[in-house]
Prior knowledge:
The protein has 246 residues and is an all-alpha fold. Helix content is 74%, strand content 2%. It is built from eight helices and two strands. A two-stranded antiparallel sheet has the order 1-2. Helix 7 (197-212) packs across helix 8 (214-245). The longest helix has 32 residues, at 214-245. The protein is globular and about 55 Å long. The termini are far apart.
Amino acid sequence: MTLKTSQPRHRGIYLLPNLFTTGAMFAGFYAITSAINGRFETAAIAMFIAMVLDGLDGRVARMTNTQSEFGVQYDSLSDMVSFGVAPAVVTYLWAFSTLGQVGLFAAFVHMAGGALRLARFNTQVEVADKRYFQGLPSPAAAAIVAGGLWFCVENGYDPESIKYIAVVTTITTGLLMVSNFRYSSFKEIDFKNKVPFIVAIVAMLIIGFVMAQPQRMLFLISVGYALSGPIVTLVLRKRKLQSRKA
């Protein structure tokens, strides 16, 4: 009598959300190759495309009930390429290459901050407050770098004249990613519910402003979001102290 050996089961992956994740990673890779070839405006646009695709993969997974641990880890690797490595390399090639070790240091701080931010997020995802992110999200940090670069290229600014401002900005984004500042995740917003008509008008105006001047508006929005972290953190701490005194 022959014994039947159990065959290992091959576990597949969900295709649809991972296609968006792959697209986001390719956009980050394309940003790097564009910068190598001197096409910095294209590199900045590619990073913003990566942000759009990164925002869609999670929503598609939730809408189609195709969430998986593989998808979570794959998304983190994609984020590291698109929002950690790509902004650091693109900015270094654009403005830091003449700064020597200072330029290398600034680019590395952003990249390392992105890596640490993603690692911390993955280890705390089950216990963290869903309403807030701890530290500036890596796509928002990349948006500051890419938006600033796009704005400067569009207006013909010489990188040599603003390279030290770019160094400070890049180091700041890296540090904000590993900070303890709380940033709103906007996950409490329910897009399925009805809203007042004025909300639709405001949304239309915001989209119109962004489409008219994307390089300027996307940069300003990302900077405003980065500044909101310290403000939100201070407000929450003040409320906590007041509740203790009450």
